[in-house]
Amino acid sequence: MTKFFYIFIFCFIGFASLVTAKDVKFIDGLEDIPLMSGLEQNTQNTVSFGNEEARFIEVYLTSSKVGFKAVEKFYTESLPQLGWIYQGTDDNSVIFYRDGESLTFHKDASKPLKIRITVKNRI
After folding, report:
1. Is 84 helix (H, G, I), strand (E, B) or coil?
2. For residue 34, cis peptide bond before it (omega within 30 degrees of 0)
3. How far apart are CA 54 and CA 43, in angstroms?
């Protein structure tokens, strides 16, 4: 293969990684959880408290563009890359565990979509 081909591939990979890293947004209060495109955070209803041993965070997301199935698919594909272990679904919830904590995505309403995200210590 030619040098031009290798230069092209190198530039393409570099450009793709810059675009991807730049476009990723994270949820306020949960800086290690990406905000799916099409969702908006309602920062006025965020609850957060804790200490060195435990924490409790509750965040609300809304959307009129995406459904809960798409949200479930996005997070079950992306969160394991961040160390969260998928535990399954329960009613209108999707549950993950990591380092003694549980992360739950609960559908509170469908139209418009309203999701409550809770992070707390597992009991």
Report:
1. coil
2. no
3. 22
- What is the pTM assigned to this prediction? 0.79
Q: What is the DSSP string of 25-57?
A: -EETTEEEEE--TT-EEEEEEEEEEE-SS-EEE
Burial of 66 (0-12, 13-18, 19+ CB in 10 A): middle
Contact 93, 66 (CB under 8 A): no
Assigned token pair, 47? 């609850």
Contacts of 21 (CB under 8 A, 6+ apart): none
| Among 60, 57, 72, 61, CA closest to 121 | 57
Give the model confidence (pLDDT) of 36-82 as tens digits: 999 999 988 889 888 878 899 999 999 999 999 999 999 999 999 99
pLDDT one-digit tens code per residue, 15-44: 454 445 557 899 998 988 999 999 999 988
- The conformation of residue 112, written as its DSSP 8-state character, comes to T
The tokens for 30 are 């949960």
Residue 60 bridge partners (DSSP): 42, 116
Within 10 angstroms of residue 90's Cβ, the number of other Cβ atoms is 10
